[in-house]
Amino acid sequence: KLLSTQSLPTITSPQIMHTPILSDHRRKKIVVTGGAGFVGSHLVDKLMMEGHEVTVLDNFFTGQKKNIAHWLQHPNFSLVVHDVTEPIQLEVQEIYHLACPASPPHYQFNPVKTIKTSTMGTLNMLGLAKRVGAKILLTSTSEIYGDPQVHPQKEDYWGNVNTVGPRSCYDEGKRVAETMMYSYKNQNHVDIRVARIFNTFGPRMHPNDGRVVSNFIIQSLQNKPITIYGEGEQTRSFQFVDDLVNGLHALMNGPYDGPVNLGNPDEYLVRDFAVLIKKLTNSASEIQKLEQTKDDPSRRKPDISLAKEKLGWSPKVKVEDGLQKTIAYFQGVLDQAGEIIPT
Ligand code: NAD
Ligand code: UDP
Ligand code: UDP
């Protein structure tokens, strides 16, 4: 027997977030690939709160629906479950191209797919940008500098990358993605932006992301051993996600189209970072040293003078303040999940 619509249970729609109503000439159609991921979802929040029409393209390899759940009912928001290695036709004015797994365990899980995502995915987004005359921003990475022999790293450093190691699928994929961006600019006059992002952390990192910040916090909150790969003598410089989102936005909306480092130069030895997180979480965890991973860059720190000069941008959030927010987030995730065993 067919149900009449009157007899169906009423679904109360969740509250729709209030966003500004922009005039037609100010409201842009913006695509964010990888918009259900950690960085992408924060960027989506900013663009939606400005009143733009945002379309997320994501295949949910590492993205989470809950990162964008608060927008699903909003009339300015669209979600297209789509793999960027496949072509797509859309009408759009700006493309923030983030789609790509970013943590070493994720991008090494299926290296061939990682290469396809960076190469075919970027090609498709550039083809789309060319066809519709859209501006396109690529989220490249500090990994294009490899295990750097110059410190701190400036944009004019060409890098030191192994072409056949475990990290190569990601590093070389991003390097060729950058090359494609400049080829489409020079040959087809596509308006491009390239951000070289350094280690970024914050709420909405995937609990099984496997990167150092989420691992150390989740381990500390559960009083489980904090796993250091190697002696912990390697360094990283950590940026809070809100600063990165502001940097991406400034880059997209400014005229400068060379590659730009976006990161926080606040540099830590990994072993000191473990102690800091243990302190901030009041944890009883012990520190456990595991085998060093192959080709792990030994030092990394951005020189951000170009971003300061060209974008008037610099990070504003102190690492410890960002960590407190991230710890609170993961505490909430743990309260719901009960237990998390990080990658
Ligand atoms: P993330 O893994 O949280 O997000 C990546 C998103 O891309 C996910 O939602 C995933 O499902 C999606 N995706 C992956 N492959 C796809 C495909 N083939 N088609 C469609 N969607 C796909 O990672 P993140 O930290 O948010 O990183 C976002 C971007 O920033 C990436 O391009 C990454 O290389 C770059 N980046 C990040 C950092 C960092 O520290 N977070 C550093 C340097 C560069
Ligand atoms: N492409 C796309 N959407 C578009 C336009 C192009 O996905 O709106 C893809 C297209 O399928 C191709 C890639 O982008 O694989 C590069 O396009 P381009 O026009 O530069 O190259 P061509 O199609 O001539 O090889
Ligand atoms: N690392 C670690 N323990 C972990 C995860 C990472 O000691 O549980 C180290 C890793 O070897 C690297 C640094 O922390 O030297 C940063 O690793 P991450 O995966 O966060 O990012 P990467 O900068 O290497 O891409």
UniProtKB/TrEMBL annotation:
EC number: 4.1.1.35
Source domain of life: Eukaryota
Keywords tagged on the record: Cytoplasm, Decarboxylase, Golgi apparatus, Lyase, Membrane, NAD, Signal-anchor, Transmembrane, Transmembrane helix
Cell location: Cytoplasm; Golgi apparatus, Golgi stack membrane
Any one GO molecular-function label of the UniProt entry: NAD+ binding
Cofactor requirement: NAD(+)
NAD(P)-binding domain boundaries: 32-326
Catalytic activity from the UniProt record: UDP-alpha-D-glucuronate + H(+) = UDP-alpha-D-xylose + CO2
The keyword Protease belongs to this UniProt entry's keyword annotation: no
Pathway: Nucleotide-sugar biosynthesis; UDP-alpha-D-xylose biosynthesis; UDP-alpha-D-xylose from UDP-alpha-D-glucuronate: step 1/1
Topological category with respect to the lipid bilayer: Single-pass type II membrane protein
Cellular component terms per the entry's GO annotation: Golgi cisterna membrane
GO BP term, pick one: D-xylose metabolic process
Keyword GTP-binding: no
Principal location listed in the UniProt entry: cytoplasm
Family designation: Belongs to the NAD(P)-dependent epimerase/dehydratase family. UDP-glucuronic acid decarboxylase subfamily.
Name of the molecule in the record: UDP-glucuronate decarboxylase
